[in-house]
């Protein structure tokens, strides 16, 4: 058996899955930008319902279907024959609601979901030259497991155990398939409250615990109650794949409860929870506050504008709208995030009608272009700072002498182009990024087109989800959570570049988007435009 230490493919897969399951400190270029194929098909099926109710346009659903058909062509989880043929046939034409094709799609999804990762496991155990690239496989597995409802922290522990046990590629594939086959478990989750307005409404409920009962429940399940004080609480019996996922469901129930307390005339917003959630069978309390979703706009610090709030314009308003995207209930987070994008990147002169880039969808494409053009500089700069040879070399000395990140990124790009990933002295956790950047500097137009496509899909999903929320009045869309998981870090990256351009050049966001769209066509061409300068003003 070949161990992980000897199997570069397995090491790459586990490294990337560790990135995808990591916390809010993971930089946006290394996050997971995709959802899985099964959820994407379920999302497409759901879109037909909203098209029938005039919430989504026919062109939006057709774009979604055509993009999905192209992406699924490389998916080993679809099998080799019958499933693949049926899905390809169904996605080749519209799927209105109602229609025989849409009913068939629902049945196909029911057959596709069981065994999806088993089919991937079978495909990945073939000889190495016929395998999907490790980046593709790791993204597929990570997205599917997250889509199923596993919590990132639980999956991070799973990936860590595989690494510790020196799992082979086959071990990883089979273990992932086993996770996908698991059935949800029942968890009892305690949400304790500090303040309980209108207690008389809580006490008759069967899952209510009085003060003393809360303490007894905690002691029964092995938790320390020293210095513990509460006004009571609720125990919810929830179905989930892991304890942390159950805690997340409890958070959402609490969000609904506290939202209702905002409608009280007296003691408005008076429901105040304790800062922890307890899950029976889980050793440690779970923080009530979840990790931020990664909408990071670091230019506010770097450009010195964090506290300059006395003058406001469109960019300032957009930041205020998007702030809710980092934490809190899902529906307001989606609505606020998209409102920021639309406020900055839509113009009255944009094409109207029902075309692919008509209406507000063009804002998603513009934001995607900005993000795609910021990707090379962000990752190359990170690699420059992480190049750390045992003894200083010419590259490390040149990087140290640079006065700005643009020059550091330029030096790093040149080293990768001339000598490949081995030009950099990096920890193993950075090697996958070095490989991606090597591919970028050697084929910039191809690589930028691929990431731009991924960003367009993520941002358009955010737009569709927002329409379902605001125009359909539904806060439980099938891809609601996944939409934020993939789009939130990208939203932060795009806003960061918009803020930077606005404060340093007084550049309108629409002009920045135009610069990005042009740059992707001109990069590495006759104008000499380099990958590190895609968002810089022309010289």
Description of the structure:
Helix 16 packs across helix 22 (509-522) and helix 20 packs across helix 21 (480-505). The chain is 57% helix and 6% strand. It has a five-stranded antiparallel β-sheet with strand order 2-3-1-4-5. Strand 4 and strand 5 form a beta hairpin. It is built from 22 helices and five strands. The protein starts with 7 loop residues before the first helix and ends in a 17-residue tail after the last helix. The mean pLDDT is 93. The chain has 539 residues and is mainly alpha-helical. It folds into three domains: 1-182, no CATH class; 185-287, no CATH class; 361-533, no CATH class.
Q: What's the quaternary structure here?
A: single chain
Largest sheet: 5 strands, antiparallel
Distance between the termini: 56 Å
The global form is globular
Q: Count every beta strand, where a strand is a DSSP E run of 2 or more residues.
A: 5
- Output the strand order for the largest sheet: 2-3-1-4-5
Low-pLDDT segments: none
Number of helices: 22
Relative helix content: 55-70%
Instruction: Indicate the mean pLDDT.
Output: 93
Kindly name the structural category.
mainly alpha
- Any idea what the radius of gyration is? 25 Å
Strand content: 5-15%
- Written as H for each helix and E for each strand, in order along the chain, the element string is HHHHHHHHHEHEHEHEEHHHHHHHHHH
- Total domain units: 3
Summarize this entry quickly.
With 539 residues, this protein is mainly alpha-helical. The protein has helices spanning 8-20, 37-52, 58-72, 82-90, 100-112, 116-124, 134-148, 152-164, 169-181, 199-202, 211-220, 243-261, 299-302, 314-322, 330-345, 361-386, 394-401, 405-419, 431-442, 444-470, 480-505, 509-522, and strands at 185-195, 208-209, 232-240, 272-279, 286-287. The chain is globular, with a radius of gyration of 25 Å.
């Amino acid at each position: 058996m070949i161990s992980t230490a000897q199997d570069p493919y397995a090491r790459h897969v586990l490294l990337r899955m560790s990135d995808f399951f990591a916390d809010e400190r993971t930089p946006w270029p290394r996050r997971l930008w995709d959802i899985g194929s099964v959820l994407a098909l379920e999302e497409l099926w759901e879109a037909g319902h909203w098209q029938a109710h005039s919430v989504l346009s026919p062109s939006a659903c057709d774009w979604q279907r055509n993009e999905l058909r192209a992406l699924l062509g490389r998916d080993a989880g679809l099998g080799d024959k019958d499933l693949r043929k049926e899905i390809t046939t169904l996605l080749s034409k519209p799927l209105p609601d109602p229609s025989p094709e849409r009913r068939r799609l629902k049945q196909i999804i029911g057959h596709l979901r069981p065994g999806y990762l088993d089919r991937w496991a079978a495909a990945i155990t073939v000889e190495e030259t016929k395998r999907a690239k490790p980046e593709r496989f790791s993204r597929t597995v990570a997205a599917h497991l997250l889509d199923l409802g596993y919590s990132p922290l639980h999956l991070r522990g799973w990936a860590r155990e595989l690494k510790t046990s020196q799992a082979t590629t086959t071990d990883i594939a089979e273990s992932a398939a086993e996770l996908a086959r698991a059935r949800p478990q029942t968890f009892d989750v305690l949400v304790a409250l500090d303040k309980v307005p209108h207690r008389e409404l809580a006490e008759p409920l069967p899952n209510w615990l009085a003060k003393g009962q809360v303490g007894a429940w905690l002691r029964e399940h092995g938790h320390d109650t020293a210095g513990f004080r509460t006004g009571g609480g609720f125990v919810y019996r929830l179905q989930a794949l892991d304890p942390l996922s159950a805690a997340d469901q409890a958070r959402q129930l609490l969000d609904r409860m506290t939202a209702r307390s905002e409608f009280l005339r007296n003691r408005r917003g008076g429901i105040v929870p304790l800062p922890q959630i307890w899950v029976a069978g889980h050793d440690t309390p779970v923080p009530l506050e979840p990790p931020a979703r990664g909408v990071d706009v670091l230019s506010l610090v770097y450009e010195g504008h964090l506290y300059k709030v006395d003058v406001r314009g469109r960019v300032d308003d957009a930041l205020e709208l998007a702030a809710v995207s980092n934490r809190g209930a899902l529906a307001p987070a989606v609505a606020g995030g998209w409102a920021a994008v639309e406020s900055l990147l839509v113009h009255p002169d944009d094409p109207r009608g029902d075309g692919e880039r008509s209406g507000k969808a063009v804002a998603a494409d513009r934001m995607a272009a900005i993000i795609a053009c910021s990707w090379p500089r962000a990752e190359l700069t990170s690699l420059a700072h992480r190049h750390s040879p045992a003894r200083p070399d010419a590259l490390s000395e040149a990087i140290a002498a640079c006065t700005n990140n643009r020059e550091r990124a330029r030096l790093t790009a040149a080293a990768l182009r001339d000598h490949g990933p081995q030009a950099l002295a990096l920890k193993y956790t950075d090697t996958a990024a070095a490989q991606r950047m090597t591919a970028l500097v050697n084929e910039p137009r191809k690589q930028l087109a691929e990431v731009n496509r991924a960003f367009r899909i993520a941002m358009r999903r955010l737009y569709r989800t927002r329409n379902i929320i605001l125009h359909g009045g539904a806060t439980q869309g099938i891809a609601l959570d996944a939409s934020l998981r993939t789009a939130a870090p990208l939203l932060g990256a795009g806003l960061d570049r918009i803020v930077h351009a606005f404060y340093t050049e007084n550049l309108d966001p629409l002009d920045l988007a135009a610069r990005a769209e042009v740059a992707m066509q001109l990069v590495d061409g006759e104008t000499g435009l380099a990958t590190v300068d895609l968002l810089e003003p022309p010289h």
